[in-house]
Structures are given as structure tokens and as C-alpha cells.
Design brief:
Elements: E1 7-9, H1 13-36, H2 41-64, E2 69-71, E3 75-78, E4 83-86, E5 90-94, E6 106-110, E7 117-119, E8 123-126, E9 129-132, H3 138-162
Antiparallel strand pairs: 1-2, 2-3, 3-4, 5-6, 6-9, 7-8, 8-9
């Protein structure tokens, strides 16, 4: 029962295609800028490098959004097996308008630094902050954040009774 999936956040196929398509469009505009306007060799090299960087991010977005985020009794993980955060390490959930969070998502604060990781369009982790969301539907992220907040409140209430 501990491995039971309580909530899921995943990117739908149209959202994946739109996100990757927009990045590919930006890369094409950068490459077009190289050939359409004469400039210095340094400027053209910079535009090509930026275009290649955007294409790399588009490829990472496509790979990252092929998995989904799962909430279990132990914490958050992705369907590829990567542990995002253990429930015991999560301090709070923030989903307000002014929270520094991904689009259609929420922000987790942990008790300590849990390292760095980035799955474009799905989640990121920097120091004690974890952002969940991006090209994901808002209703899935809201349901996961609500359930996670309830789990954290239950955990904190149980630990208060032990004192």
C-alpha cells in the first residue's frame, strides 16, 4: 500500500507538441536571422549558438515530459524512477499568485538542500525549493498540491502529539 499512487501530474500530448513547437519556432527564427540579415561573423555565430541551445532545450522538454510526476505515501517521484522529494523532507507547499512557481504548478520548500535537477516543463529542484508544473494541466497540479498539503498537516499534527 505504501507504493500506491495518490495523485498524478502529467503533460498531455497537445501541450508537449505546443511547447516543443514554440521552442523549435524560436530556433528557426534565430537561424533565419543568420541568413536574412548580413552581420558580422561573431553575430552570426552567436545566433547559431543560441538557435542550437534552444533546440537542445526543446529536445530536453520532449524527453522530460514523457514521464509523469506521482505522489505516493513516501513523497514525490517521477514515473522514470527519480525521487523528487521525500514527504519527510518537505516543509511546506506554496501555490499563491506571488509564489515563485512554474506555470500551472506549485512550489515545495524542503528542510534542507536536496540538490539540483531540472526536467523542463515538468519540475525543477534548486537548493531547498522544488517547482512542480510547466506544460502540465493546472487542475492536476492543484489536486496534487491540495493532497500534499493535507498529508503535511497530518504529519505535523501526528508529530505534535508525540511531544
Amino acid at each position: 500500500m505504501d507504493d500506491e499512487i495518490l495523485a498524478v501530474v502529467e503533460a498531455s500530448a497537445p501541450r508537449r507538441w505546443i511547447g516543443v513547437g514554440m521552442l523549435a519556432g524560436i530556433a528557426l527564427l534565430l537561424f533565419y536571422g543568420v541568413f536574412a540579415t548580413p552581420g558580422t561573423l561573431l553575430w552570426q555565430a552567436a545566433l547559431i549558438a543560441l538557435g542550437l541551445g534552444v533546440l537542445w532545450i526543446a529536445a530536453r522538454l520532449w524527453q522530460a515530459t514523457s514521464v509523469r510526476i506521482e505522489l505516493t505515501a513516501q513523497g514525490l517521484r517521477d514515473s522514470g524512477g527519480a525521487v523528487i522529494a521525500r514527504l519527510a523532507d518537505i516543509k511546506s507547499v506554496e501555490r499563491g499568485s506571488f509564489a515563485f512557481k512554474p506555470t500551472n504548478g506549485f512550489l515545495l520548500r524542503t528542510y534542507g538542500s536536496v540538490g539540483r535537477a531540472w526536467r523542463p516543463g515538468l519540475w525543477w529542484r534548486i537548493g531547498p525549493r522544488i517547482g512542480i508544473g510547466g506544460v502540465t494541466p493546472g487542475h492536476q497540479a492543484k489536486a496534487m498540491a491540495d493532497l500534499l498539503a493535507v498529508r503535511l498537516a497530518e504529519r505535523d499534527q501526528a508529530s505534535d502529539h508525540l511531544i
